[in-house]
Known about the structure:
Layout: E1 11-14, H1 22-25, E2 32-36, H2 39-43, H3 48-56, E3 60-64, H4 73-85, E4 90-95, H5 97-108, H6 116-121, E5 131-136, E6 148-153, E7 158-163, E8 171-174, H7 184-202, H8 209-223, H9 226-231, H10 236-255, H11 260-272, H12 276-306, H13 316-333, H14 350-358, H15 361-364, H16 373-383
Parallel strand pairs: 1-8, 2-3, 2-4, 4-5, 5-8
Antiparallel strand pairs: 6-7
Helix pairs in contact: 4-5, 7-8, 7-10, 7-12, 8-10, 11-12, 11-14, 12-13, 12-16, 14-16
Amino acid sequence: MENYNLKMPKSVHAGDQALEQLENIINKNIKKIVIFTSEGLMKLGLTTVPIEIIERLGIDYTVITGIPPEPSYIEAQEAIDKFKEENADFIIALGGGSIMDVAKLASLLDTDEYSVKDLLDDPLLANKQVSSLMIPSTAGTGAEATPNAIVGVPEKDIKIGIVNPEMIPDYVILDGRMIQSLPTSIAAATGVDALCHAIECFTSEKANPISDTFALEALDLIINNIIVACKNNDAFEEKGKMLLGSFYAGVAITASGTTAVHALSYPLGGKYHIAHGVSNAMLLTPVMKFNEPAIKDLLAIAYDRVVKEDQHLQTIDEKSAYIIKELESIVTELKIPTSLKTFNVPKEDLEGLVEAGMSVTRLLVNNKRPLTAEDARNIYLEVL
């Protein structure tokens, strides 16, 4: 039997009033906490409960904001340099994927030995220096579960994933209040990002019994709750299920890995600064249709798991087609752009996209159906 490996945060708190568990997480020996978050989340009052708990415990803290969406490695380093000045011994990240990714890098880089740029070349250089807690404010990126941090590399017009098992957070809090007021567009883009994580990990070349357990549960939770959770701020139960699904999909990434959807989306974020979830949503259906000959049996298993009523389809072909159509309809119903024309990307950039996309070999090797430059070219043409 093959060997499988799973690394997870050592403590995960989820459900109603999960934020209040912060008091049990914070060690009495902690002297200084740095909170990575954003001005917008502070204005929404999402940092109020954590800060009140920290103040009640009498622990010193500093808040770091100003991390841009989809930061470059230079911007990430700027935030980390501010963090290093604080001499903190605990990190809390309250935000979306970019904020959590920078906080995870900070947990390694509380040292002058290495920089973010150094980790682009050798991600395993650094070891954890400071314990971390992640509190996601979107149900999408799964960054609270993964050993990955995604940063832009401006000189190459691409985003690169820094992967180091030491970056897996120590603690996670999943509280539905964090995503209750998300604008529909952000909830949709991040939710479809989680959907991509689930279906890609389940159909990955590196999929295994451990990752399949989390990927299928994530797919079930997300497909059956994403529309209501994104469109209705009062759908607290569905939002909680999306948070859990996003976390499970993140665990699946750690045990397996994403595929060509993510690989081909990285140049779209790196060069054109298209939101990560939007670029994934654009490529989801074209890549799944390309992969279908190699993953039909897996998509049929997914159908059997996620369709709760009226399971009338019998053949693998019918079930596979249904799942791909369902993924497409979710993107359509949530009104996520499906064409690069929306972002004024010219067809003249096609060859640059192909070259950049094909360079993401870390993820392309996970694709069940081998993908050539010509295949990538045809997929990009579908969305240009």
